[in-house]
UniProtKB/TrEMBL annotation:
Coiled coil: none annotated. This is DUF2007 domain-containing protein. It comes from Hymenobacter cellulosilyticus. Residues 16-74 form the DUF2007 domain.
Amino acid sequence: MTFEPAEDHIVVLESFADPITAHLAKSRLEAEQIPCFLTNENLVSLNRLYGPASGGVRLHVREQDVAAAVEILRYETVPMTASRAEDEPQPDIVHCPRCDSTDVAFGPATRNTYSFPMLMLSVLLGYPLRGKRYHCFHCRHEFKRSEVENL
C-alpha cells in the first residue's frame, strides 16, 4: 500500500504594484493561519518598470484557501502608508504682517540683517553670515516669526 499526499493546487490570489503592499497583504493572511508566498518580488524591487510587464508582485495561496483569503483582504484594506493624511497635523499658515499674503517662505535672508555679533563674525570669517527669515513673495517684506505672533 502506497501513501500519496494530497496535491495542493497553488493559485495567484492577487497582484500588487509594489513589494511593501504585497508583504502587508501576506502578513494579514499569515495572521489568519493561511499559508501563502510571494513571487516576482525581487524583480519589481530592482526596477519598477518591470512590474507591469511581469505582472507585479504576485501573492499565491492554496486553491482551498482562496475564498477565506479573498474575504480577509476584501474587508481589511492594505494601507499604502502607516498614517492617514487626516491624522497628520496641518502646518501653520504664515501670513505676511504687511500685506497679509500667504505666499511666504522661510529661508536665508535676502537683505542684510546683521546684528553686531553676526557682523563681527562675518568680518572675521571673511564671508557674510545671514540669519534665516520669512520672505513674502507678494510685497518682498522679510520678517521673523516673532513679528507674526505678536500681531
